[in-house]
Amino acid sequence: MVCKYPDTADAKGTAISRVNAGMFGNILIGGGIGAVVDHACTYPGWLQLVFGRALVFDRRDEKEGQPVPPHVEEEKSAKKANAPQ
Fold it and tell me: Is residue 10 predicted with pLDDT exceeding 80?
């Protein structure tokens, strides 16, 4: 997602979905076709973008009735680059 406002750095966000409980029922009842047809994934429900920042919001971190806490996209990239291989 990208939000733009004149004379302001863009607010960018990436939302990461996660499989919800419905996926397992689809696989049991409908097999792989049930899983593919229904796409039982859920995205974060409440995001707060910040102008001038690129943030990542993971559905796994969602708490009921609260915005999803963001991760800074640049920090995640740096951690991957510095990880032992």
Answer: yes
HSE-up (13 A, CA, CB side) for residue 74: 4
Dihedral of CA atoms 54, 55, 56, 57 in degrees, nearest 10, equals -140
Q: How far apart are CA 21 and CA 41, in angstroms?
A: 9
pLDDT at 31: 57
| Residues 24-49: tens digit of each pLDDT | 555 555 555 555 555 567 788 888 99
Domain membership of residue 62 as a residue range: 2-82
How many CA atoms lie within 13 Å of 28's alpha carbon, on the beta-carbon side? Answer: 5
Q: Residue 79 and residue 60: Cα distance in Å, rounded?
A: 19
**Count of domains in the chain?**
1
In which order are the strands placed within the sheet that holds 54-58? 2-5, 8-16, 54-58, 71-72
Distance, CA of 62 to chain centre: 10
